Amino acid sequence: MRRTVFPHRLLPWLLLAPQLAITLIFFYWPAAQAFRQSMLKEDPFGLSSTFVGLANFRKVLSDPNYLNSVQVTAVFSASVAFLAMSIALFLAVQAEKIIRGKGFYRTLMIWPYAVAPAIAGMLWLFMFNPSFGTLARPLRVMGINWNPLLNADHAMILIIAAATWKQISYNFLFFVAGLQAIPRSLLEAAAIDGASRRHSFWTITFPLLAPTTFFLLVVNTVYALFDTFGIIHAVTGGGPGKATETLVYKVYNDGFVNLIMGESAAQSVILMVIVIALTAFQFRFIERRVHYG
Prior knowledge:
- The protein is mainly α.
- It is built from 13 helices and two strands, in the order αββαααααααααααα.
- It has one domain (about 65-290): MetI-like fold, CATH 1.10.3720.10.
- The longest helix has about 35 residues, at about 65-95.
């Protein structure tokens, strides 16, 4: 293998400079500012600040509303990641069975990913609005007193459904690519040996999709924790009664609505630590089961 030699020692750093600048300005600098602000008690208008150390963290971790947000986030994130990946895998497997018009079906499946999170949330709220929603009426006919604006369980179900629908297309795209990379000879050999489709899937297809599944697990976890803010803001606004207030939405609510800067910054630092810990856990323990063939 030939080793690439640059004509000047500074050239590699110059090529990396734009990406390094973006990373420093938009990632590390805001993280450092959030950590600094979490140690301060600030005036809402930024006119004065007092160093309070870890007082903001102690207050946040002892707040029942914050502990409720942790529970809501755990239920919401686990549900969205599991449902979005499971449904996408099922649809990808079914799409691979189609002989005619396969590309057309794939295109239809990918389109929802182009919808903005807030728009996706409004679409689902419009369909399931208790007053005029087109899909809310069948629920009432079935005897379900559907009202996500007042019922906490209904609100949680609605935002989980909207967030799942928004992410299915992304997962579908990667699962289709993973299925296409599986050698057909393995599946044909299993069929000749008399293995059923279900047996072939769980013993051949799914294990070979492990790298794709692990990658999507990490991506979907981050998506559920951060990128679903627009859906929650558009559909429920964290209500009713903080039943759908996730960690990222509470950071926004306390920092930008209630102007509690120090506690909001402390919450953002805690959320960053949670994401880093989850990602490290996934790479440390779950990746062991991933086989890169």
